[in-house]
């Protein structure tokens, strides 16, 4: 059964990993889908920054064993390293490696479910199959980024922690500590796995910290601390300077129930939040508040107060699209089942890293790119499975079939986005317009055979008298770039204030809105390649938030007036 569910997960992931992007512009050509693909390879070759080299070290080693080592001068050489990392042989290995780890994560999810509920194997098979059929997890698994690998290492560590907490012997404990390292370093530094170690604390230690607090009191304190952090790490709140309001956290602490020796810890929490909000340390700033300015104009901190409603909306949207509406609706029932499971409290505590990441993405995260939510999908698939089998009519065969048919159709819809990529559809247009001078935005990825070579568009070309723009014949806009002017997962749904848009400037956002509305005097829409979906989750997302696949989007081609 585990082998079977592994293959169900692997086949669509591996097929897309080895076909998407290949041969678009001629036999043997390769076009990367996600511009972050293989960055971990370049980091390993010391030709990139801000990425973990762990996965790159593995893919480069496998590629070397297969007879394709990096050039001798690749280390530290950006152009050579990039050419090698994005070459066909390495990308085939890197994507296949990602697909394999994605399928292996499905097996880990089954094993974790077995550990929690050994007498109800149907929960494990349901959780595994839900993850195997997750279109979001599947499509991330056929891209050579670190997100799927990070998710695999996190759940491998969580499983090892569960085994260690169940069997307090030296070998399981040592294995758990060893597997914690890739979980932390697979993507930059991800400290949340350390929270799983709380499951090993004796009850006396917990009691000395919590005192006589009930579970409800403790949940209230944690919730109050998170809400306080959500405000403290918000640039809108910081601009007002209302830091004394952070002291309202103290009202949530049941002071008479906590030990006197731990009172200073609770007293320090608002002060620590204030201190982090004041610091300009890059690591803390980028993971809490975000900067007001960035290399694309505004930084992630520019969203201001809109950050609160954006984050609160993004999490349920991601879970609905990631698992399918029926499974997502059952997650709350799964949470209830988890709370009721008093026999396995320590095992559930091993999942604290995922709970902490959920709270972080819900209230604090300045950057909310969808793939950053990927570690939540296996755990929520497990909760959805728990929720499904708590239904009194769960054994109904028609209901069970429909429950799995829905995510299967959603998986097909997800995959069709990649196999019918609009950039691939546009090849014929380029062939028909050979000799035309073309401007293009990022992510439009024009074919290399087009002559004269397309020129990267700068928004300034179309501003003012647009004299530079009128030197060309056509402008190709990619949704993945102009979406910065629209409602999407980084901007949220309140985008009337151009000052609060992320990764753009008010002038650029206004320009793209003008172009998309057909009001630019020098541009006329002549061709529109559109991503089409049939499942309601993706259709509704496109209507209100744009195409869900942020590296596969609409292409709009405009004729430039002379």
Automatic annotation (TrEMBL):
Please report the name of this protein according to its UniProt entry.
Glycosyltransferase RgtA/B/C/D-like domain-containing protein
TM ranges: 97-116, 146-165, 192-210, 217-234, 315-335, 347-366, 372-391, 398-416
Q: Where is the signal peptide?
A: none
Q: Where in the cell is it found?
A: Cell membrane
Top-level taxon of the source organism: Bacteria
Q: Does the keyword Transmembrane apply?
A: yes
The entry's cellular-component GO terms read: plasma membrane
What are the recorded Gene Ontology BP terms? lipopolysaccharide biosynthetic process
Q: How does it sit in the membrane?
A: Multi-pass membrane protein
GO molecular-function terms, A-Z = pentosyltransferase activity
Q: Which UniProt keywords apply?
A: Cell membrane, Glycosyltransferase, Membrane, Transferase, Transmembrane, Transmembrane helix
């Amino acid at each position: 059964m585990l082998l079977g569910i592994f293959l169900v997960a692997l086949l669509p992931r591996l097929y897309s990993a080895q076909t998407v992007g290949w041969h678009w512009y001629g036999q043997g050509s390769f076009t990367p889908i996600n511009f972050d693909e293989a960055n971990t390879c370049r980091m390993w070759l010391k030709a990139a920054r801000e990425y973990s080299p762990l996965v790159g070290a593995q893919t480069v080693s496998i590629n070397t064993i297969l007879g394709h080592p990096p050039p001798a001068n690749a280390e530290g050489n950006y152009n050579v390293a990039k050419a090698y990392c994005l070459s066909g042989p390495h990308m085939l290995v890197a994507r296949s490696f990602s697909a394999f780890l994605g399928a292996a994560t499905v097996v880990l999810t089954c094993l974790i479910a077995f550990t929690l509920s050994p007498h109800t194997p149907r929960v494990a098979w349901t959780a595994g199959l839900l993850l195997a059929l997750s279109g979001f997890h599947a499509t991330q698994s056929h891209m050579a980024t670190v997100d799927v690998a990070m998710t695999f290492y996190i759940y491998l560590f969580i499983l090892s922690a569960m085994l260690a907490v169940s069997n307090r012997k030296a070998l399981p404990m040592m294995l758990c500590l060893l597997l914690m390292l890739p979980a932390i370093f697979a993507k930059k530094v991800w400290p949340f796995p350390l929270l799983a170690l709380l499951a090993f604390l004796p009850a006396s230690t917990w009691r000395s910290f919590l005192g006589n607090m009930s579970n409800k009191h403790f949940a209230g304190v944690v919730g109050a601390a998170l809400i306080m952090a959500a405000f403290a790490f918000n640039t809108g709140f910081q601009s007002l300077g209302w830091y004394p309001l952070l002291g309202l956290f103290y009202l949530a602490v049941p002071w008479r129930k906590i030990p006197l020796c731990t009172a200073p810890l609770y007293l320090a929490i608002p002060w620590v939040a204030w201190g982090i909000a004041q610091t300009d340390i890059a690591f803390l700033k980028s993971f809490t508040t975000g900067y007001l300015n960035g290399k694309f104009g505004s930084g992630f901190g520019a969203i201001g107060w809109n950050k609160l409603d954006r984050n609160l909306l993004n999490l349920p949207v991601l879970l609905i699209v990631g698992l399918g509406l029926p499974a997502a609706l059952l997650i709350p029932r799964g949470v209830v089942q988890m709370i009721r499971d008093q026999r396995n409290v320590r095992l559930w505590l091993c999942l604290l890293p995922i709970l902490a990441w959920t709270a972080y993405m819900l209230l604090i995260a300045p950057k909310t790119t969808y793939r950053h939510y990927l570690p939540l999908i296996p755990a929520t698939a497990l909760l959805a499975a728990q929720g499904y089998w708590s239904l009194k009519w769960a054994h109904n065969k028609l209901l069970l079939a429909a429950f799995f048919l829905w995510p299967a159709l959603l998986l097909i819809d997800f995959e069709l986005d990649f196999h019918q990529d609009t950039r691939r559809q546009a090849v014929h247009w380029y062939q028909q317009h050979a000799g035309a001078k073309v401007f293009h935005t990022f992510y439009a990825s024009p074919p290399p055979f087009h002559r004269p070579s397309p020129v990267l568009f700068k928004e300034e070309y179309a501003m003012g008298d647009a004299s530079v723009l009128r030197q060309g014949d056509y402008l190709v806009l990619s949704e993945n770039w102009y979406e910065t002017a629209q409602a999407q997962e980084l901007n949220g749904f309140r985008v009337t204030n151009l000052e609060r848009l992320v990764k753009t400037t008010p002038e650029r956002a206004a320009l793209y809105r003008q172009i998309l509305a057909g009001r630019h005097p020098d541009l006329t829409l002549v061709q529109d390649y559109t991503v089409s979906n049939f499942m309601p989750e993706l259709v509704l997302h496109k209507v209100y938030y744009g195409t869900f696949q942020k590296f596969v989007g609409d292409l709009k081609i405009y004729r430039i007036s002379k």
